[in-house]
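Budget justification note: compute hours in this period were largely spent on complex prediction jobs such as the one shown. Inputs:
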Amino acid sequence: MSGGAQYVVAAYAVIWLLVLAYVVMLAARTARVGRQVEAITRLLDRREAGKSGAEPEKTEERA
Amino acid sequence: MMALVRKDLRLELRTRETIVAMVLFAIVMLAILQFGFGTRDDDLTRFVGGLMWVTLAFTAVLGVGRSYVAEREQRVLDGLLVSPVPRTVMLGAKAIAIFLYMTAVEVVVIPLVGIFFVKGPYWDAIGWIAIAAVLANTCIALSGTLFSGLALFTRARDLIFPVLFLPALVPVVIAGAGATHAVAGGPHDMSEWRGYCLFLLAYAILFSLVCVATYDAVFDD
Amino acid sequence: MTPSSTTDGPARIPGQRAAVIWGTIATILVVASTIGVFLIAPEDADQGIIQRIFYFHVAIAIASLVAFAVACVAGILYLRTRSERWDDVGEASIRIGLLFSVLVVITGSIWAKASWGTWWVWSDPRLVTYLIVVLVYAAYFVLRSSAEDDRKMRYSAIYAIAGFASVPLSFYSVRVAESFVHPVVFTSSGANMPGTMLWWFVMSQVAMIALFIALLEVDLLGRRSERALRRLAMRLESA
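Corresponding output:
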């Protein structure tokens, strides 16, 4: 049985793909955290701008 | 401890609902399984271990799942939890009650399996099967107590409990069916039977350690 | 695999450096051992090219057991300390362990197809055992999703311990039942393969353990970041 290279390739491809998918999942979460940090930063910026200006505006951006 | 076992059993004897339902369920299961084979062959000796232990596993799910419900509904558990009874004693009482339920079901199921499915010699093997069943009951009682305790306060506990319990029961089913198969219907393969029984013993010991170690944490609120 | 650096403020989330380092090590090792397994390791005399599945298949199997062991220890530590940190470690480990066991089942099935011509062989203890292991640990997430907060963490910890107890039982129960097996690559006395093969197997094993650690570190970093973010958001809302 020296054939069957396609099975070996398939096995390793499955391993690589699933691990990559897992990493992408983790990356997606990190990206979400990043977006939320940006939202909070914007909120802060606006607040500070509001304080130095006229009145503090209240915007709830984050869920 | 014996008082707690008695409580479980008295509760049971008064209602009799669980045990009767469990026995009926087991008989129905046996019938359904046989139809599932799609054969009208009278001699199912080859499958007898599987038939018996699949039935017992599902019956265990049914019975163990019920075993805490009475306490939950009738608020017995709240009383027990605030009482000074050590958790390990509660565990022991519950395990003994489950053990007795299973034994009661097996008293009906094991002979019935012989009558229904085995055409070869069976009755001289029944003692060996009973020993394996006692060991398996211990395993079922211990893991059943632990997992039903875990499922007790979850949402959808009726669904959660079998999902937790059945995978842990797979080794018991494998060993129980193996031991039954080794002795039922023909020449007894005692070394195989002994191997499975030792395995069941190891399972019981390991799970009793896990139960003792974790049971305090199951109910610490 | 590099986590984006989130804050430039004073509250630096710990573990970023570890995540980057382990991510890099794991990537290098996994790439290197894939190349080694395909191009450098010698062809097996009996099984030919199919034997090459073995390297990662077994390495991932062992790494998944390591993951479950870590989760079991984390469970014990959680019950001792009641610290969220150990719950995080436990859940992350089991998630990775489950991913690995699914991979074991899939690659094992491919191996069965390649050498026996059928996708599933009930008489192969490794496939059957890992199927049971997958079921045991998939139930962990069902349990987690149906309880809250403190109770969720406590139940998860207990289940991680009980689950780990049932792993060796599944292994043994399936093996009691089997007399005939898989190509035995390991004998109980040790490795039964030529030196270069063993070398690449060890390499794959190290790579898989490193992959586990890297995924765990990145996952934990993510959880810590989320938690820090939630605290920050709460502070902002109350301010």
